[in-house]
């Protein structure tokens, strides 16, 4: 049984979509997103996929707080990790979002649940930065090393350096920013599609970091943390292999990822992950059409229970 880790939360928030569709407001800078919806009953399929994913996580021993996404004006509500994050010591952050309809995803009932069930000392709300065009889309924009206190962030319109600096100052993280793009030159829109940090390993599409010197610095910093680096190809990144999250289950740590991502991994990569975690593939192909995968659907709770 793997030991508990501050990197791997034992409880999460997930929002079950009732009106899922591909968000036209986010398509311009999300190359992972399907350009048009395929097949009928998209919302129904996404709802069923999400419900089964929740069941599998609960079966693994993860506490899942499920909220219902019933507002038809929030097609991306299934991705709550972008609008809030939680942190040891009782701290919560609320983030500024680029797409206007994604700002509607922020929910007082989620924050109230956190205050009721967990020890919350303060809530820092950065959403006012939207008025100045400054965005920082949560743990999509940043991949956080909760052990080493480093915030890794790919440069994009959704990761403003001013907002990032404010967050890192308030929450005691060191920012490590880098440029990243695919082979067509399109910037990586969210860091968490190309990078996942576990307790004992880090998965990263390092070949997509376009500055060679900066790439070396990022890899060096990850190695200094004692983690084994699993290098992901651009093809694996396109299949969401980097969009995973380590969680604490009933009998040890698990790595929640999509079936698409699992199928893209090589046997040696799987073997490295299995040294410290159990892989839990979740089948969410409809939800992935929106340009995010399992990591995006999960907001980890790094708070102490009351």
From TrEMBL:
<protein>
    <recommendedName>
        <fullName>Amidinotransferase</fullName>
    </recommendedName>
</protein>
<dbReference type="InterPro" id="IPR014541">
    <property type="entry name" value="Amdntrnsf_FN0238"/>
</dbReference>
<dbReference type="Pfam" id="PF19420">
    <property type="entry name" value="DDAH_eukar"/>
</dbReference>
């Amino acid at each position: 049984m793997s030991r508990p880790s501050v990197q791997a939360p034992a409880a999460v928030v997930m929002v079950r979509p009732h009106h899922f569709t591909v968000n036209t407001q986010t398509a311009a800078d999300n190359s992972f997103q399907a350009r048009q919806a395929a097949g009928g009953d998209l919302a129904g399929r996404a709802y069923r996929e999400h419900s089964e994913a929740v069941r599998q996580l609960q079966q693994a021993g993860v506490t899942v707080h499920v909220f219902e996404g019933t507002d038809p004006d929030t097609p991306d509500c299934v991705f709550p990790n972008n609008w809030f994050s939680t942190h040891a010591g009782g701290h919560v952050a609320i983030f500024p979002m680029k797409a206007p309809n994604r700002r509607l995803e922020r929910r007082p009932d989620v924050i109230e649940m956190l205050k009721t069930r967990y020890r919350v000392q303060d809530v820092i709300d950065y959403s006012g930065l939207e008025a100045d065009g400054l965005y920082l889309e949560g743990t999509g924009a940043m991949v956080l090393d909760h052990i080493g206190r480093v915030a890794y962030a790919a440069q994009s319109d959704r990761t403003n350096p001013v907002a990032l600096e404010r967050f890192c100052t308030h929450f005691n993280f060191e920012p490590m920013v880098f440029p990243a793009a695919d082979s067509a030159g399109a910037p990586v829109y969210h860091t968490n599609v190309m990078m996942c940090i576990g307790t004992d390993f880090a998965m990263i599409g390092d070949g997509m970091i376009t500055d060679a010197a900066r790439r070396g610095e990022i890899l060096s910093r990850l190695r200094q943390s004692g983690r084994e680096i699993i290098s992901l190809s651009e093809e694996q990144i396109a299949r969401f292999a980097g969009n995973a999250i380590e969680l604490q289950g009933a009998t040890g740590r698990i790595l929640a990822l999509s079936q698409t991502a699992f199928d893209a991994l090589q046997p040696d990569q799987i073997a490295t992950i299995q040294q410290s975690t159990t892989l839990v593939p979740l089948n969410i192909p409809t939800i992935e059409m929106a340009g995010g995968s399992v990591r995006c659907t999960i907001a980890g709770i790094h708070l102490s229970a009351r």
